[in-house]
């Protein structure tokens, strides 16, 4: 069985820099032209990442998967940290912390992607009985 080749730290850093400067790439592009532009950018990114001296070579589709997995894992970790921080005290401290690269991922995808929208709950109006 073939072992899974892992991207190097330099490739992750390069991926993050590219996504930081091309943040719209992570979002669906409208229309056929948007899709073609996104495909060209992903191919450019794959070529850049594959030319990094250390690390692995992957197709643009595989690099998309790397980015999607990294975003997903980072969002889950950030959410776990946030949930622990908003919980009641008394338990052990949370040992999870975001690495500097993970913190930058959150910056690229936006805190809203992790925290979600704030929703105000609407309560029922209390009607006092007549006397």
List the helices and strands and how they pair.
Elements: H1 9-21, H2 31-50, H3 60-86, H4 100-109, H5 111-115
Q: What do you see in this structure?
A:
- The protein is mainly alpha-helical and 131 residues long.
- It has one domain.
- It is built from five helices and no strands.
- It has helices at residues 9-21, 31-50, 60-86, 100-109, 111-115.
- The model has no long low-confidence stretch (mean pLDDT 83).
Provide key terms for this protein:
131 residues; mainly alpha; 57% helix; elongated
**Backbone shape:** elongated
Secondary-structure-based class equals mainly alpha
Order of helices and strands: HHHHH
Structural Rg: 21 Å
How many structural domains are formed by the residues? 1
Strand segment tally: 0
**Biggest sheet, in brief?**
none
Measured between the Cα atoms of the first and last residue, the distance is: 80 Å
Helix content: 55-70%
What portion of residues belong to β-strands?
under 5%
Give the low-confidence spans.
none
InterPro entries: Myb_DNA-bind_5
Protein name: Regulatory protein zeste
Keywords: Transcription, Transcription regulation
GO cellular component, one term: nucleus
């Amino acid at each position: 069985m073939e072992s899974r080749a892992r991207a190097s730290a330099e490739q992750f850093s390069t991926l993050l820099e590219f996504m930081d400067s091309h943040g719209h790439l992570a979002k669906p592009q409208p229309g056929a032209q948007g899709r073609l532009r996104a495909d060209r950018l992903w191919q450019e990114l794959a070529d850049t990442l594959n030319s990094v001296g250390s690390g692995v070579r992957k197709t643009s589709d595989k690099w998309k998967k790397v980015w999607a997995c990294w975003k997903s894992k980072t969002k889950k970790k950030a959410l776990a940290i946030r949930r622990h921080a908003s919980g009641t005290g008394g338990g052990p401290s949370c040992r999870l912390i975001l690495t500097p690269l993970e913190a930058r991922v959150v910056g690229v995808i936006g805190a809203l992607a992790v925290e979600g929208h704030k929703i105000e709950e609407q309560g029922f109006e209390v009607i006092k009985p007549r006397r």
